[in-house]
Amino acid sequence: MSHNVLVVDDEPKLCDLLASALSQGDIQVFTAGNGLHALTVLEREEIDLVISDWRMPGMDGPALLAEIKTRYPDLPVIVMTAYSTVKNAVQSMRNGAYDYISKPFDIDELDITVNKALQFRDILRDNARLRAELDEHQQFDSLVGESPAFRRVLQAVDSVRDSNATILLTGESGTGKEMVARAIHKHGNRADKPFVAVNCAAIPEGLLESEMFGHRKGAFTGAVADRVGRFMQADKGTLFLDEVGDMPLALQAKILRALQERIIEPVGDPRERKVDVRVIAATNKDLLEAVAKKEFREDLYYRLNVFPIPLPPLRERPEDIAPLARHFAHALGATAGKRITGFTPEALQSMVNYPWPGNIRELQNCVERATIVASGSLIEESDLPAYLFGSRPLTGAITGMPMDGPAVPEDLDAALAEVEKNYILAALQETNGVQAAAAQLIGISERSFWYRLKKLAIHVDKIVR
After folding, report:
1. Where exactly are the structural domains of the chain?
2. Which residues does 375 contact at the CB level (< 8 Å), separation at least 6?
3. How far apart are CA 42 and CA 53, in angstroms?
4. Which end of the chain is more exposed for a tag (fewer CB within 10 A), N or C?
5. What is the dotted CATH code of the domain comprising 163-311?
6. What angle do CA 377, 379, 382 make, to 5 degrees?
């Protein structure tokens, strides 16, 4: 495997010496005279290892190390120090350096240290790749459903996955637009290239252009080094523009040009860059309505809407609720260390009857909560959150009494205190008097739980005898 090594030192002769010593086999050496120059190289090149001097003008070794650990936390750094400053080397190790070498250094010792650092880098890269493949696999597995409405989505995904056409995913929040975008990428002709996601609503308007197209050092206050934008990061791969309906009008024209001409221009850089990206956009807004209100460019809308895929809300695919719930319960149960085999018929029916305004995301959160609460291998109706039932009475498996109570209590405070006391007593019985576990079971802090014990005059030792 080939590797790129960056040597940072303000002495050109030492840089040349290290470049000559390391430039053998599959190692290519880049050099920089100071920390700021090194950051520029890191923005431009895929570097596997940095070897940096400790004392340099401008940005010195410690400052460069801190910046690298912030921007590239998995990038190993070897620090070079003189024999008299071994204390500095130890401090650098505490601050995240992989290792250090002392000047003057032995070439054999240098080779050993560099090879170990590169092996460490390879392990981290392989782990990251495996995690990414697992995440994408899990995302595709989450496209669960056999309803006619969802089968149409799967058919559309299969039709467009090998195409370079721009895709527009529409649907309510929580319908799984990013999961569909990842599935298209993973199973398309760009699967071995980057998938880069940008939430257009989450980035401040003033930074969005720099985030998309990158910038040159000094282009604006705070631009201390060149930055590669999301378009260039996604080159040869897929760029996912989430919440594209929230993109400012001023940026829409530049996005349109990038899509039409496949050319971008970083902020502060007059040079144009060609890019090859497949764009998938997503929105929960009615873009035609936004066009009518002059809030979204009509030409950009038609450029994005080459291949539209509408995602149905969960309430329009009720037959998919049960398989989705089982899928989430299996995955979340394993994460929580529980073996959840399914749901009782009553629990499934309650979930099917609920309209799910938050769609798949809300269903996943509901199942996660029920998985934590469930005491057995089956999730019961009483394990589900109360909001699913509205005003319908629910007999709780823990309390053994109707949760709705009398319509108009004579003393509301006393009635609420009695309900609160029943919950706490049931939780203590369930956890054999372990107060921390009981607090977690009913979803309150330990401090709040202790306060309620005192307020309601509950004596734990009498409960568990």
Report:
1. 3-127, 163-311, 314-398, 406-465
2. 430
3. 16
4. C
5. 3.40.50.300
6. 135
Query: Model pTM?
Result: 0.56
* Fold annotation for 3-127: Rossmann fold (3.40.50)
DSSP H helical ranges for 168-294? 177-186, 205-213, 230-233, 249-261, 287-292
Residue 342: phi and psi, rounded to 5, are 160, -155
CATH class of 314-398: mainly alpha
User: What distance in Å separates the CA atoms of residue 130 and residue 128, rounded to the nearest whole number?
Assistant: 5
* Residue-wise pLDDT tens digits, 29-62: 999 999 999 999 998 888 999 999 888 888 888 8
Residue 125 pairs in a beta bridge with none
Own/partner contacts of 204-208, CB < 8 Å, gap of 24 or more, are 205/248, 205/251, 208/247, 208/248, 208/251
User: Structure tokens of 21?
Assistant: 């010593």
CA distance 274 to 97: 36
End-to-end CA distance of the chain: 66
Q: Are 48 and 72 in contact (CB under 8 A)?
A: no
